[in-house]
Specification:
With 369 residues, the protein is α+β, with helices and mostly antiparallel strands. Helices cover 43% and strands 16% of the residues. A hairpin with a 4-residue loop joins strand 10 (237-241) and strand 11.
């Protein structure tokens, strides 16, 4: 509905403006003054007998979100940790590739893991909303519910109402807490309340770095977090593992395996730098040139040969015909390869149409069949 009237109004500062529609102005005034009906309606339900604390909700949200990330990193497609709908969303969004019962993280997925948690949630929810019609959910209803969650209070229980399916998906990724799927109450977590500001939140807390990289490609990860350990294992062989300390080795084979899955050398180096131990951050550059250069060399090994589609022109009747077509193809930048002695010419696919038209016009002009 139109929320303003197309009538020019003079504001207090003397500038032109618009006048709010009376109905919209009335509703806005009511909302700003704290009147009207709350977004969750007047559901008459008994209070939750086991209310949850803010600390519990923060811990739950972190645990559930890390379960999703661990599913992406680990190769087993057993869906114990995430629902089939969420697993399919990761697949359709290009963040994982699946082969039989196994899956592997892609370049898009690894880039996703380089983001901070609020930005990850923002990106994931955009993909979810883009695909929600494939899981029989109404986009408008889902958007309205998300906006409503942003006005909720952390630590307060709210009735589920008609959003049972959507709440179950949000529960899977830690945006809401629900004791069991039949419970009439849910608790929004900090992730859900802060979701709409995540895209512009520049003060998102990042955990301290934990990785040390030596010039002999030895990697030391000072962490006991399963997700962090699994991420390092994507491109480094695990040599030793202790309670809060892991030793790995980046080799040609381990890095090539990561490259095969679509993870680039730059992404690996960005990950190492963004998770570098405070002691490593004192180095300039953070990752030594020995490691950096070798990573790019290993990547270049996979691109020694590059293929490009082209069209072969041959069987020219004279050197003059060949020279004319060759010069025209050179002028438009379409020559891929040529052999003057054998009168062979290869042009790229983009220029093939223009070269073909020119050659036909030239033959017609000179009376050739």
């Amino acid at each position: 509905k139109q929320w303003y009237q197309r009538r020019v109004a003079i504001t207090a500062g003397g500038n032109d403006g618009v006048t709010l529609h009376p109905n919209f102005r009335k509703g806005l005034t009511t909302a700003m003054c704290g009147g009207g009906m709350s977004w969750y309606g007047n559901h008459q339900l008994e209070p939750d007998k086991k209310p949850k604390t803010v600390e519990f909700l923060d811990s739950y949200a972190k645990e559930r979100w890390e379960c999703l990330l661990q599913y992406m990193v680990q190769g087993n497609s057993d869906s114990d940790k995430v629902s089939p709908d969420i697993a399919n969303l990761l697949l359709q969004s290009g963040m994982i590739n699946k082969s039989g019962n196994e899956h592997a993280i892609t370049s898009v997925g690894f880039q996703f893991l380089l983001l901070d948690a609020p930005s990850q949630i923002w990106y994931f929810m955009l993909k979810y909303l883009d695909k929600c019609d494939t899981i029989d959910l109404n986009l408008t209803t889902c958007l309205a519910f998300i906006f409503q969650l942003s006005f909720s209070t952390l630590g307060k229980a709210y009735p589920i109402g008609s959003h049972a399916t959507f709440v179950q998906h949000l529960r899977q990724i830690g945006l809401v807490y629900q004791r069991k799927h039949t419970s009439p109450w849910f608790y929004p977590t900090r992730h859900a309340i802060d979701f709409l500001s995540a895209g512009s939140n520049k003060s998102a807390e990042r955990k301290e770095g934990f990785i040390v990289v030596e010039t002999n490609f030895r990697v030391y990860a000072y962490t006991s977090n399963e997700l962090d350990i699994a991420l390092v294992a994507l491109f480094a062989e695990t040599l030793h593992r202790f309670e809060s300390f892991v030793v790995g080795q980046m080799t040609r084979e381990s890095v090539q395996l990561a490259l095969q899955n679509g993870i680039s050398a730059k992404q690996i180096l960005d990950f190492l730098e963004s998770h570098a131990h405070p002691q490593m951050l004192k180095n300039k550059p953070v990752i030594g040139p020995t490691v950096t250069d070798q990573m790019y060399l290993w990547e270049m090994e996979r691109s020694r040969l590059a293929t490009e589609e082209g069209v072969l022109y041959s069987q020219f009747l004279s050197d003059a015909d060949f020279k004319v077509v060759h010069e025209y193809a050179q002028n438009i930048g379409s020559v891929q390869w040529s052999n003057v002695q054998k009168r062979l010419l290869v042009v790229n696919k983009k220029g093939h149409g223009d070269v073909k038209k020119y050659w036909k016009a030239y033959k017609k002009e000179h009376g050739e069949c």
